[in-house]
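Data availability (excerpt). The following record was deposited with the supplementary files.
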Amino acid sequence: MTAKPNLTLVAPRPVPAGPVDRNPGMPLDLDVVRALRVNRSAVERRAATLGTRRTVKKEWQAAWLLRAITLMDLTTLSGDDTPGNVQRLCAKARNPLRGDLVEALGIGALDIKVGAVCVYHALVPTAVAALEGSGIPVAAVSTGFPAGLSPVPQRIEEIRASVAAGAAEIDIVITRAHVLTGNWEALYSEVKQFREACGEAHMKAILATGELATLGNVARASMVAMQAGADFIKTSTGKEPVNATLPFGLVMCRMIREYFEQTGYAVGFKPAGGIRTAKTALEFLYLMKEELGDRWLRADLFRFGASGLLTDIERQLEHFATQRYSAAHRHPMP
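Predicted structure:
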């Protein structure tokens, strides 16, 4: 018998500590895409452990919740949005915590602000004006949000109009039919055109995971979007019956990790839709720390898409500061 050669372990690719290079995309690799498989039961078991294997309490929980605020895309995407609503939302984005709570926590020097404000295209100029000088970027939902069924040229023009109006980030929606029919070439072409239209604005690709039928489709759509140049992959529009869940998040994080190992480019992740409690937010932060590492706990690589989450985080922080739970109406959102 001949002895087996020693196996050589390859060290993981190091994640940059500073700013990451923007993902330029790559040619569509159908061999990689079609080879992706997902063990649903294993994913569900792993996701079920996230809230039980790790927990933080007291001042450590407060610190994690403050970090969650800085990772938030404060969002309003309602049919009755008005300039006044958006101006109030932007005021909340600048000062997400009440002044007395900031003083009680002793965090005035931290200058806590949200990661971005997300609105419809028509309200981008209002948000840009309201946030001037704050350093908070404006994100616009685009490309026929939420269904994404407008003609592609019209969707591209919508992106260009939002960028021209001052949006620094564009949340695009993919055509779900391309995923459901396995037309990966069409999906790649679509997302690549959207990325080119974004120019310097960062692009978040919304996969609408609740409408993709299988976790395997979520994995393949994630990989194609990244190959096409997405800066972030995002779970949902918030309008689907099922939005951000930990199993979806786990699959997408594994694809981000695989893409990073293949190319060296770090792509961000944005869970959105249904994240309304501090407990859920903490579970997603645990997911990022365990699956991708601390570097993905900064706003350039992770965001929450949320409208009601900030209210519950404020309540939890007030409980930490005063040992009393306050009513939700003490923390009004616009």
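Summary of structural features: Residues 234 and 270 are 4 Å apart (CA to CA).
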